[in-house]
Amino acid sequence: MVCSWTSATNLARIYNLDVPDASVRIQAPWSYQLQINTEQVWDAFFVHGLLLDCSSRNTILILDVSVPQDQRLHFALETRNQHMVGPGQKYWNHACNLCCAERKSPDGTPAALRASVVDGISIGRPCCSVHDCKEALSSQRDRFCYTHADMRDICVIVDCDDHIEPGHQTCSKADHRQLEVVGIIERTAMFQLKKRLERLNVTQPETAIMQDLSSSDDLPNTQEGCEGKSDEGNAKPRARFGRRRTHNEQLCVTSCGIIQGRATFYGSESPNGVRLFLHALFPTAKSVPGVIFHDNNCHVKKLINNLQDSHFDRCALPVDVFHMKSKHKESDEFCGRWCNPAHFPDLMVNDKWRFNSSAAEMTNAWFGGFQAIVQEMRVDRYEFFLDEMIQRRNEIIVADLQHQHAMPYQIPRNELLV
C-alpha cells in the first residue's frame, strides 16, 4: 500500500492468485476457506495497526466482541486518531542535515534552523454539504449530517431557501427545475464519455450531444436568449446535487521529505485555516520551525500581523521558490518584503538554496495516489489509514536518510513542548 498504492481488493486478489491450490493442503474437511476477501484485508490492516500503536504506547487493545466488527473497531480507531492530532506523528520532531542547519543567532551564539513546507492536496471524502461543517455523516450516501438533516428538504440551488417538490431536488421555479433536468442529462454515461473526449482534445465529426449546455463549478447551468445582459443581471444559478467532499488534506513536510503532520480542510484552504493548522501542529514557540514555506504565505503573514499573533515571531514565512517566481507579482510590496526567500540570507549557502522548498509538492505526488482508495471511507477509517501510510513512509524516508549519511535524529520532545 505504501509503495505502490495497492488497494485492499487488489491485495486480496494477488494473494488468491499466488496460492490457488491452498485448499488441497487441508486433508480434513474444514469450515473455513483459505482464500481471502477485501473485508478481511481491511480488518487485518486496522487490527494490526491498532496492535502496533498500543504496543508503542504500552497499552492494551480492548474491543467489544458483542458488536459487529466495523463498530467494534470504531472507538479504538477514534482514540488513535485523536492521538495523532497536532504533534502526534512519531517523526514530528525529526531533524537531519537536509532539513536542519546551523546558524548564528543575533547574539552570536550558534542555533539550529529547521525548515518545513506546508501544502495541500485535493484528496477528499464525503462530508456534510453545509460549508465547513465537520460533523460526521450517519451514512456515506447522506448529503447532510444529523444536525443539518432538515436541509434535505431545501432546494439544491445555491442561496435558494424554498422547499423541494415531491420527486424532485429543486423547488417549483422554472429555471431551477431546468437545472435539475440538465443535471440528469450530464450524469448519464454518454454525456460523461463525450466530455472526456473533449478534455483529450479528440475531434468527433458527428455528435448527438446538446451543444447549448454550459457548466458551473458544481453542476451545469442553462443559458438561453440573445447576447447581452438580461434584466435580472448576468448571475447564473448554481446547484449542488451530489455530495460535498472535504476540500483538501494539508501536509507539513520537512525539507528532507518527512511528514510532520496532516489535517483535513473542509471548506477551503484559507490563510486562517493554515494558521490554525500550524498552531495545532507546533503548539509551543520552541516547537515552531525557523522557516515554514507555503505558496500563500503572503496572505498568512498579513493575517498574522492583523491578529497580532506572536506565536510565529521567530519564524520566517517565505513563499516557496517556485511559486514566488511564477505566481506572485513583483508589484506586491508586502509579499516582496516579507515573503521573498531571497530576503532571508540564512536560506542560502554558496549562492544556492539551503533547503528544498518543493518537498511538500513532491510528497503530494505520492500522497495523491491514495485518492481512489479513501474516497468512500468513513471518517474514522479515513483518518487512521492516511496517518498509518504517513508513518510507514516516514520510516522508509528515515532509512534512506541513514544510507545517505544525512544523520537523521529526533529532537527530545520535552525540549520542544515547553
From TrEMBL:
Signal sequence bounds: none
Domain CxC6 like cysteine cluster associated with KDZ per the UniProt entry, residue ranges: 117-180
Region (Disordered): 208-241
Record-linked Pfam families: CxC6
Record field: compositional bias (Polar residues): 208-224
Biased composition (Basic and acidic residues): 226-235
Protein name: CxC6 like cysteine cluster associated with KDZ domain-containing protein
